Amino acid sequence: xxxxxxxxxxxxxxxxxxxxxxxxxxxxxxxxxxxxxxxxxxxxxxxxxxxxxxxxxxxxxxxxxxxxxxxxxxxxxxxxxxxxxxxxxxxxxxxxxxxxxxxxxxxxxxxxxxxxxxxxxxxxxxxxxxxxxxxxxxxxxxxxxxxxxxxxxxxxxxxxxxxxxxxxxxxxxxxxxxxxxxxxxxxxxxxxxxxxxxxxx
Length: 201
Prior knowledge:
Elements: H1 3-12, H2 18-36, E1 40-43, H3 51-64, E2 72-75, E3 88-89, H4 91-94, E4 101-106, H5 112-123, E5 127-132, H6 136-141, E6 144-147, H7 158-169, H8 180-194
Parallel strand pairs: 1-2, 1-4, 2-3, 4-5, 5-6
Helix pairs in contact: 1-7, 2-7, 3-7, 3-8
């Protein structure tokens, strides 16, 4: 979603708590990854993998000059043909510890295996944030969380909030020159946007 559409979305939601809540959550995310020097892991549930949020964060990292915001997408199922940065499985969470930031996107209750891995990462020192549908167990694991219940929030769903958060995460930063690092991140963004989602989608 480009800046114009985000601005329109914020205008539509003006008068609600969502723009400020998204900025607050994005600020926590940005400060965590910058303070710890990167190491952002992004994981969804077995039924919902946050492909679009990953692509938007790569985009924001590129334009804001904050490479720490560029996430590693951790996937429940990895195919042998996937590029290296799209072939990171759940085992990566077991290696997450102090200095890592783990962002969990869970519209519904995650399975016990994912919750156990997230709990292990937190115990090892990782900072855990969640964008979720209000599950209590996810909340208990997260240092910072932002919940969306579409049944109670008319016109707002988790996808909408992800757009607000990703846009806000790159704000208040000085854009960097477009050198080789820019081209590398642009290539990674292109891979994320053009790689097909899992067959079950």
